[in-house]
Every structure is written in structure tokens, then in C-alpha cells.
Amino acid sequence: MDTVLKGMDPASSFSTRPLSPATWNDFAALVEANNGVWGGCWCMGFHPEGVGKGHTVEGNRLAKRAHVDRGTVHQILVYEGDQCLGWCQYGSPLELPNIQNPKTYAKGLGEMPDWRIGCIFTGSRHRRRGVARAALGAALGAIQDAGGGLVEAYPEQIEGRPPQRGAYFHTGTTDLFEEFGFERDRKIAMWRWVMRLRIKS
Ligand SMILES: CC(C)(COP(=O)(O)OP(=O)(O)OC[C@H]1O[C@@H](n2cnc3c(N)ncnc32)[C@H](O)[C@@H]1OP(=O)(O)O)[C@@H](O)C(=O)NCCC(=O)NCCS
After folding, report:
1. Whose CA is nearest to atom 35 of ligand 1?
2. Looking at the chain, which runs of residues are DSSP E strands?
3. Most buried of the four, 29, 72, 74, 163, by CB within 10 Å?
4. Among 121, 158, 165, 177, which is best to mutate for testing ligand 1, by the most ligand atoms less than 8 A from CB?
5. Distance between alpha carbon 112 and the CA centroid of its chain, in Å?
6. pLDDT digits over 61-70, tens only?
7. Domains in the chain and their CATH numbers?
8. Which residue's C-alpha comes closest to atom 25 of ligand 1?
9. Alpha helices in the chain, H assignment, sequence order
10. What is the pLDDT of residues 5-59, one digit of tens each?
11. How far does the centroid of ligand 1 lie from the alpha carbon of residue 102, in Å?
12. φ, ψ for residue 125 (rounded to 5)?
């Protein structure tokens, strides 16, 4: 499963930038145009603080901004022109400790990954145009630039189930990860897999 990645498709009309204080307003505009994403999570689910009980939408926004200011978030934003259309979050397990189905995950765990792919999101009006593909490709390129290593993702299986709305795929789909050479390691829920790819620097 070793791979050396190529850059983004040169024919793509998208460009990418990392989430940082300089791109925060573009990210925030996309989140706000999509009702805070998932009821106002502000993409905090994988971060150590988590989301849900005891968390508010404003608290999630402030927590995300604090990660950006401290440099404790890795997230690739996809742009068309000046508009941010989507993102792919990635980071070390320390940076992104909160995966779903943690007990089942822990039971089958052998080697800990160096990197995790967290949430993937495309604005509701821009889906099925390759934004998530561009975001994931750029995130894997950034991981390669940072030295590579074992990358893990937790996507949803598509085959064998009725068509689902994109809303259910916040960790992406197995098909998308297979395009990049990820292999299925083990199932951790009815439709969710651990998928892995080892990237050389
Ligand atoms: C899942 C999601 C990220 C896909 O983004 P996207 O930009 O539309 O995806 P792409 O156009 O790059 O699709 C790439 C591939 O992924 C798969 N895919 C994407 N959406 C799919 C869907 N709804 N059903 C089945 N497969 C899908 C396909 O294989 C697709 O390739 P194809 O279009 O050539 O068939 C998007 O639907 C989304 O953001 N959903 C909401 C997730 C969310 O709430 N995230 C919050 C996290 S904080």
C-alpha cells in the first residue's frame, strides 16, 4: 500500500490553501453559509474538545479559531477564485483524538497511524464537482511534504446500501479513498471502515 503521490490535476479549476489566520474569514463564510455545519459544530468533532452536550455553537466557533491561532489545526481549504467551497481536515492522532466507534477501533488496533484524515466538507451548493477529491488530494500532498507516514481514514461504505445524502458522509466515502490508493483495514461500524495508506516522503 506504499504510494508516492502526484500533485493536483492541473486541469482542475480549484486551488487550495491551508486554514490559517489569513484564510479564517473564507472558512468562516463557508461555515456560516451552511448553518455552522452539522448544527453548528464548526468542524470541532475530531479535535480534543469534541462537540455535543455542553458545547455551544459560539463556543465551537471560538474553540476552532483558537486552534487556528495556536497552529493546532491542519485543514486544506478548496477555492474557486476567491470563494472557499470546501475542506479536508487532517492531523496527528494527538491533534485529532476523537474518532467515532472508539471502542471497536481500539479492539482491532495494531500500529497507530502517524496521521488521520478527519472531517471532509463541501458546501451544499457545490457538491459532486470534485471539491472533496481536490481537498483530499491536497491534504495527502501536504502530509507527503511533512514527511509522509501511515495515514488513516474512517469513511463510509457506499456499495450494498441505498443512495445516501452527502450529509451522512462527513468522513468521506470508501470509493473516494480507494481512488487515492487507500486499502480497507477493518470495519468499525455497519458502514464505516478504517482505511489506510502509507505515504513515502
Ligand atoms: C461527502 C462530501 C464531502 C462529498 O463532497 P463532494 O465535493 O460532493 O465530493 P466529490 O464531488 O469530490 O466526489 C468524489 C467522489 O466521492 C464519492 N461521493 C461523493 N458524494 C457522494 C454521495 N453523496 N454518494 C455516493 N458517493 C459519493 C463519489 O465516488 C465521488 O466521485 P464521482 O462524483 O466521480 O462519482 C459532501 O457531500 C459533504 O460535504 N457532505 C456533508 C459532510 C459534512 O456534513 N461534513 C461536516 C464535517 S465538519
Report:
1. 128
2. 2-3, 15-18, 74-80, 83-91, 115-122, 149-153, 183-187, 193-199
3. 74
4. 121
5. 18
6. 999 999 999 9
7. 2-199 (3.40.630.30)
8. 158
9. 24-33, 57-70, 102-107, 131-145, 174-179
10. 444 555 678 999 999 999 999 999 999 999 999 889 999 999 999 998 999 999 9
11. 24
12. -90, 0
Atom of ligand 1 nearest to the CA of 41: 48
Residues 6+ apart with CB under 8 A from 6: none
Closest residue by Cα to residue 183 from 136, 150, 159, 135: 150
- Cβ atoms of 194 and 154 closer than 8 Å: yes
Q: Residue ranges of the alpha helices (H) in 71-160? A: 102-107, 131-145
What are the cell numbers at 175?
A: 470509493
DSSP state of 82: T
pTM of the prediction?
0.94
